[in-house]
Design goal:
Oligomer: single chain
Structural class: mainly alpha
Strand order of the largest sheet: 1-2
Radius of gyration: 20 Å
Distance between the termini: 8 Å
Number of helices: 11
Order of helices and strands: HHHHHHHHHHEEH
């Protein structure tokens, strides 16, 4: 548990570790190279994608496991240190705040061009023609979704199986972001990666349906409304998971998310979630960040208490 607390604290202080080779970047590089090799030798695209997922996820668990075991054989604290650093790399609490605040600042300064530039670094949708309201909506949706992907899920798997499990989760996340598309190139090859990502986030996303409302209540937002909207609208999204934190956040802030989006020139109408009690303003970005941070604190506390009881009252 100590490595988890250390890793969490390091992320709050330092943010994304640009001073060291980031495991996610390494995983991404391996995925790119391995995809080329596997496609060359395995003609069945779906089977090839399954093999890619097994190799990447397996290595992403095994290498940290062996590294930590070797470090721990030298000294217990060395094992803790390696574990803490690895867990730290799976979290994105501070960086999510930094990116979101840069968008907030640009909007407050009426600099729509800069806001579009900043939001393009956070989302996959087309940003050239976004209005101020659409930029705010995209930012809030991204903060809500990344509360699961970058905070709750990594911590969940870290408590479940330490740093190796947390890194394996990030490998799943990276696979989905790189090959889990429903286009001609990846509809079959990325099938396994997309399904595994849905499965990995299934429980954390549903945990968010409790943690986001509680966080909202503690921050004097609409806690009960958050929970009700999560139950009502959480399943509207085509993704089995992303709609839950987005709807919980929408309920907490009394706003409506979803609607028209453009991806690579193709317009998609996402289901509307939440009730349009308030018009979207830049302040909703700051409120979303506060909720996200509170979710991290509650996830840590919940994990510590649960682990303490499972160990029979021992740390």
């Amino acid at each position: 548990m100590i490595p988890i607390i250390l890793g969490y604290t390091m992320d709050l202080i330092f943010g994304d570790p640009r001073w060291m080779p980031h495991p996610v970047k390494i995983i991404g590089t391996v995925i790119t190279k391995l995809e080329f090799v596997i496609r060359k030798f395995i003609l069945n695209k779906r089977f090839a994608g399954i093999i890619l997922a097994i190799i990447i996820i397996g290595l992403s668990w095994l290498i940290p496991f062996l590294l930590i075991k070797f470090a721990a054989s030298i000294h217990k604290y060395a094992g803790w240190g390696i574990s803490a650093v690895l867990i730290y790399t799976t979290l994105s609490i501070k960086d999510l705040k930094v990116h979101a605040i840069s968008i907030y600042s640009a909007l407050k300064n009426k600099n729509l061009v800069k806001a579009k530039e900043k939001i393009s670094m956070m989302v996959g949708r087309d940003t050239e023609n976004l209005s101020e309201t659409e930029i705010i909506r995209a930012t809030v949706e991204t903060i809500a979704e990344n509360t699961v992907d970058g905070i709750i899920s990594p911590l969940f798997f870290a408590f479940l199986g330490g740093a190796p499990m947390a890194i394996a989760y990030k490998a799943v996340n990276t696979l989905d972001s790189m090959v889990g598309y429903k286009n001609k190139k990846y509809i079959d090859f990325g099938w396994a990666s997309a399904k595994i990502d849905d499965l990995a986030n299934f429980i954390p996303a549903r945990i968010s349906a409790l943690i986001i409302p509680i966080s909202s209540w503690l921050l004097r937002e609409r806690g009960i409304k958050s929970w009700r909207i999560a139950l009502r609208d959480g399943k509207k999204n085509s993704s089995p998971n992303s709609g839950i934190p987005q709807s919980a956040t929408a309920g907490a802030l009394g706003i409506q998310l979803g609607g028209k989006c453009s991806y690579h020139g193709l317009t998609i109408n996402k289901p509307l979630i939440g009730d349009k009690i308030n018009l979207l303003t830049p302040e909703h970005i700051k409120k979303s960040i506060k909720i996200s941070h509170m979710c991290g604190i509650l996830t840590i506390l919940t994990g510590l208490i649960t682990t303490y009881h499972l160990r029979g009252g021992k740390w």
